[in-house]
């Protein structure tokens, strides 16, 4: 009790002290929403910043943590909490650790601490533990080079998510009705994002939000504060729920960005730095939303291309061509004609290149050329009877021709090599459905969904099998879930 009294007295002194002029400048230059907040909310942000900077343990992991850096992070914490009435000081967050660049952990640390991420990260939040931030990422995002992204808000959202129960993407809402509404809307939005991410479609919400529901909440929080107008237009129900949770409506006070003018770059590189004007109408807003989405999609493509280019430079010419052709097949939409041309070039140099034969079969199948695809499959399987790509394409051709047993034979062989491949399991379910083996088909679809819960084709296939088995309620649920993943209404 005495400790709480002393803490409150210390905080009262901090909040009543003059706010440094330098800090005001940092807030205005790094928290772009700050200058547009109502005056009362600005005062709350300042109070949170004063306490947050003073009380948190700031650790630099290979970098000196300056006062400006502390104020920038604290300012975003204040932005997230300024709608709560009384200032919230993140009492359960004791430590902020800042890294100069991407966060990586040494193998011996990964072995000792299982909670550490094995992959490079831009930020990490531990439940009842510290928040880790990459300052290179923070600087890039605060400069407006990644519209809709803000790693500070993202990691603080994880912290807030974990205040009650686990970090599971379900924030502590005020009442049962709100909680039920959140589950309904968030689940639908999550599944739609997961489906779009699987198809690599451009979206306003970052595809990383499809990783799991905790990441979805963090990504949605970023979008809510960074692109409120676009989010309110495209995801109104989700926006309204976040507005109720954070008790703030940024679209009401944050100026709507101007729509891109004609004859200018439709994908502005520094959208956040563009001047702001008043509301410009729904059509202009949709145009701006499309530009933002296109920019983010282009950024993801550039990142993939840069990684591929780096790998290509270290390869032989033949390996580089092969990798480039695989990239064409993997693109969304696939660049199948380009891939076929490269595989043909490789086969001219080596007619017995079994992998190029199998992948040219894939390219030809994607273009609707079943006859030549089948010929390539036969040639590849004559060299290697267990080539999975050739077996899959030949099975797909057999399915379209209703040769169910032939398809089943090829899929059984392919699954010996890749027993956890959701696409192959789904195709085997299709073959068994064709043979009217409904129970076994339903089992195949269920197994596919165990490995990929967002496989819409497996859901539709299982719905058909369940309908045939008389389980109409479960079939309807699968169809509804598949429609959500596909962005459709049924």
Describe it for me?
The protein is mostly helical. It has 3 domains: 10-268 and 280-296, Collagenase (Catalytic Domain), CATH 3.40.390.10; 315-406, Alpha Horseshoe (Serine Threonine Protein Phosphatase 5, Tetratricopeptide repeat), CATH 1.25.40; 420-490, Tetratricopeptide repeat domain (Serine Threonine Protein Phosphatase 5, Tetratricopeptide repeat). The chain is 63% helix and 3% strand. It has 23 helices and 4 strands. The chain has helices spanning 2-16, 21-30, 39-55, 67-81, 107-112, 135-142, 151-161, 176-199, 213-226, 228-234, 236-246, 250-253, 282-312, 317-330, 336-349, 354-366, 370-383, 388-400, 404-417, 422-434, 438-451, 456-468, 472-485; strands spanning 57-60, 95-99, 123-125, 131-134. A 4-stranded mixed beta sheet has the order 1-2-4-3. Helix 4 (67-81) links the parallel strand 1 and strand 2 (95-99). Helix 10 crosses helix 11 (236-246). The longest helix is centred in the middle third of the chain and has 31 residues, at 282-312. The N and C termini lie far apart (58 Å).
